[in-house]
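Input record (Table S2, row 279):
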Amino acid sequence: MTATPTTVRPSNPPIALAIAGSETSGGAGAQTDLKTFAQLGVFGCVSLTCIVSFDPKNDFAHRLHAIDPQVLADQIEAAVGVHGTIDAVKIGMLGTIPTIETVAGALEQYRFANVVVDPVLICKGQEAGAALDIDNALREKVLPYATITTPNLFETQVLAGVEEITTVDALKDAAKRIYDHGVPNVLAKAGTLLGTGTALDVFYDGQTLEVLEVPAIGQERVSGAGCTLAAAITAELAKGASPLDACRTAKDVVVSSIENRMHGNAPFDCVYQGRYGRQ
Ligand code: PXL
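Output record (PXL complex):
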């Protein structure tokens, strides 16, 4: 007896592309992005910018290997070539100036509908001086294409060009300054660093200025929270959410990812998105 073939229909969910670094232990970067996309019902692709390998022999410091810019350009070309339309793009760690220039070229060429820029300026193990060059290149070459940017407190200070931010009002002011640089939506993240007992971020889109706040969970920094937040915003934009609603959902995803964090040998825990919406 021959079995009747079942009809296979493509499901074609929304598609998100992460242009990001690999963090091989799975706690941050592209690995986190893909898991977050999947958890939110979005098909994920990745174009790798760099490979980060923590060094267990040296207090888990970052070892950073940049991907050849042409290989990065080829990956983006491949993702776009296969899918045609990419509904949203997340830009994560870029790491070097040639990488930033390659990504800027791709953003100019493909004009993606939604671009989330998580301005990862430096990671442990990079020269502090490199942050300045990277900041300037990101600001000039990549931020002009952003639909939304999600700087943490340090990155907010650098991008807004302000001194240390210690109050919610100063954070609001900095978010407005970044908006004034031409970014249509800004989520300036203080997390727990303003001592409010909450994880507090400011959203600004030129009209709505909203403080997004959830109870802080624990005292320790959890690796991958920023990546998860930006990836969840990307997934929600791919599904058609407004930037503000995307940020609200993304904060819920981060809360779940921190509540369900992973503990290993490194001196920091990392997020796990796999229980969001399933508890
Ligand atoms: O969480 C920031 C981050 C982003 N991207 C990669 C990383 C890290 C931190 O470790 O390794 C690739």
